[in-house]
Amino acid sequence: MSQIFIRLAKDSDATIWNDYVLGHPDSGPYHLWEWRQTIRDAYNHSPYYLIAEESSTNKVIGLLPLFYIKPPFVKGQLVSLPFCDYGGPLAETTDIKALLCQGAKNFASEKNATIELRCNQPLSAVSSLTSFGDKVRMILPLPESSDLLLKQFKSKLRSQIRRPVRDELYARIGRSELVGDFYTVFTVNMRDLGSPVHSQRCFEALMHHFAEKAKVGVVYKEHTPVAAGIILLHNTTVSIPWASSLRSFNRYSPNMLLYWSFLEYAADSGYKRFDFGRSSPDSGTFRFKKQWGAKPEPVFWYADSPPAITASGKGKKLRERAENIWMKLPLAAVNYLGPKIRKYISL
């Protein structure tokens, strides 16, 4: 019987890595080699991408992408994968997944780091990891065309989609040429939410490495960008990891036009599913996604040291205080400080 060999991926493994990812039914856009290149370019975090091979044939039979994130003065973390909903191992069998996870544990031990695996399928391979969190992905099956999709919406939703068009808002879908307008909206929205923002370099790197697998959408009022998002295209699924709109233009419902533009593009381009991304059940974002007909699918997050729950008490008060301070900072300040902080927040 052929033995299984676990090794670190090299730069020359990009093609065989992506071939395996694209052929695996549980894979997503974040498993692709392009995510590795994006995070390295944007934040210089170290990738530990593990490949499982049959020793006699060198056939790839499993993968586990990881990044090592080490903030100053605190313990580092191996995450699969940071800044997205899921990564986790892809493999032919549960036993191979277990070997990949053991490889991750070995690296974590060498670096005195914790491990966090975010999966879109349950992971039974490693009993030493603890499940945590209650997030779900909101998934909408797509019909063969946007016309059919529009017809299946309730009349109220169709009216909400048409409203911004009546108010002379319009949408564009493009690529790198729209990153600047996207970032203009994104930074304001993140500041208003009290959250540190990703660097513009992160999105420029994403568009460079993902090429035609990524699109930027922007909604304009006259020449002003008022809502914007980014979608990733993977096999039969379109995912939207980032979307924002300006609160000062909420009366025009630009977010409805933004999402409809992406859904229209996805359906008419032949994609079968639209992944609205993760939400907490019954939250505002959950209800927003549900109105489009999206259904919840659980995500499965595991760690050897799960983060403490701070939904109430002192932790919640400290977080709210930090958010309130952040909201009041000048935009130039949060745009400068935000990426320096955000690179160490793996969510």
Structure commentary:
By secondary structure, this protein is of the alpha+beta class. The chain has two domains: 4-128, 3-Layer(aba) Sandwich (Aminopeptidase), CATH 3.40.630.30; 137-297, Gcn5-related N-acetyltransferase (GNAT) (Aminopeptidase, 3-Layer(aba) Sandwich). The protein has eleven helices and 17 strands. The strands form three sheets. It has a seven-stranded mixed β-sheet, sandwiched between helices. It has a six-stranded mixed β-sheet with strand order 2-5-6-8-17-9, covered by helices on one side. Strand 5 and strand 6 (77-80) form a beta hairpin. Helix 2 (33-43) runs antiparallel to helix 7 (200-210) and helix 5 crosses helix 8. It is globular and about 65 Å long. The two termini are 41 Å apart.
Q: Largest beta sheet, briefly? A: 7 strands, mixed
Could you estimate the helical fraction of the residues in percent? Answer: 25-40%
Q: And the CATH topology of the largest domain? A: Aminopeptidase
Number of helices: 11
| Corresponding CATH architecture of the largest domain | 3-Layer(aba) Sandwich
Poorly predicted ranges? none
Derived from helix and strand composition plus strand pairing, the structural class reads: alpha+beta
Distance between the termini: 41 Å
Shape: globular
CATH H-level homologous superfamily name of the largest domain: Gcn5-related N-acetyltransferase (GNAT)
Q: β content, as a range?
A: 25-35%
Question: Which whole number gives the mean pLDDT?
Answer: 95
- Regarding quaternary structure, how should these chains be classified? single chain
Determine Rg (CA atoms, Å). Answer: 21 Å
Strand order of the largest sheet: 11-12-13-14-15-10-16
The ordered H/E elements are EHHEEEEEEHEEEHHEHHEEEHEHEEHH
Q: How many discrete domains?
A: 2
CATH class of the largest domain reads: Alpha Beta
